[in-house]
Amino acid sequence: MFTDKYIKYFLIGCCLSFSACQSFESASNLPDVSEIEVNIAVKRFDKDLFELDTTKIGTSLENLVQKYPDFYTFFTQTLMEWSDSSINQEVKEFISHPDIRTIYDDSQSTFADFETYQQKLVTAFKYFKYHFPTASVPEIVTYVSAFRQMGFTLGEKVLGIGLDFHLGKDYALYPTTGYPQYLINSFEADYLTSHTMKVWGQQLYPESLKESRFIDRIVYKGKLLYFLDLVLPEVADYAKMDYTADQLAWCNNNERQIWSFFIEKKMLYESESRKYQEYLNPGPTSSGMPKKSPGNIGSWLGWQIVRKYMKMHPETSIQELWGINNGQEVLQKSKYKP
User: Fold this and answer.
1) pTM of this prediction?
2) Considering only CA atoms, which of 253, 252, 250, 229 is closest in space to residue 240?
């Protein structure tokens, strides 16, 4: 349905001893963030782009540049790969293309009132400021890229989130994109907050491949998910993993078998990423495990290890946790053994 000119397939590297729908903390254990002031500025680049006056495209784009100096450059040159020499025509074709216009219109219908999502982000960043009191809060920019990228950051100043990746798993146009259903299952509006904060966590703590053993990689993934525990304590665990509730329940009920699988395969200290990479990425299932197993199960396992470590060492701050680069150290001190 879509032309190759406008559709490219790329997703951010996305992504429990509790019930499937349970979140990490009970309400009684949550820190009080009511007095923390956070002002989240949300700019609707999607609206400003698609509502340009194409009869005065040059002037309209100049105004857009002034309003979004950094974001505009990244969006047009890096994300959309438009040339400066043909930018006027590229923009006009993009915002008037019938299929892309449909995506935009549907995103506006889904997110006509962004206030609900903005308040969820305010709450998330209040928790963030509780744990990172000196850190800055980014400006949030929403956009529609015709399914090119779910989210990105521009340093610590701007956090972009693609609305077209959150139109519902049954959205009519998703099957035409080439994305598999196991990814589409998480393209829900309710997942927008967790996706946004996951992108922010990756900005704060980018993955270093200096340590490339499986144990190091899953502990890194576990740290990212633990970061979501801290900033989204009331969000269901399955949403943090981009799982369904049933998939998370399967992991919970088979934790010991999952651990035994990797032990028997002698996978923990494997350094050849080709042998373990599939367990760190989304997929329809996990190779060698029952069909009901979800993909990305290595990340889920790393999450359990990190949670156990923090339970054993509650005096450890999130900053100190991130300072431990040796996954084996986290595993040993966690005494994890389901």
Assistant:
1) 0.89
2) 229
Q: Is the pLDDT score of 312 beyond 70?
A: yes
Residues in contact with 266: Cβ distance below 8 Å, sequence separation at least 6, in sequence order: none
What confidence category does residue 8 fall into, taking pLDDT thresholds of 50, 70 and 90?
very low
CA pair distance 68, 45, nearest whole angstrom: 8
Eight-state DSSP code of residue 281: S
How does pLDDT run across 238-275, given as a tens digit for each residue? 999 999 999 999 999 999 999 999 999 999 999 999 99
One DSSP character per residue, 86-121 reads: GHHHHHHHHHH-HHHHHHHHHHHHHTS-THHHHHHH
Does the pLDDT at position 188 exceed 70?
yes
Question: Which residues, including other chains, have CB under 8 Å from residue 173's CB and lie 6 or more apart?
Answer: 1, 99, 102, 103, 106
Cβ atoms of 220 and 204 within 8 Å: the answer is no
Question: 88 vs 73, 81, 92, 94, 250, CA distance in Å?
Answer: 14, 13, 6, 10, 51
Question: Token pair of 58, please?
Answer: 């040059």
Closest CA to 317 of 137, 131, 191: 131
Give the closest residue to 238 by CA, choosing from 302, 194, 284: 194
Residue extents of the structural domains in the chain: 35-201, 214-334
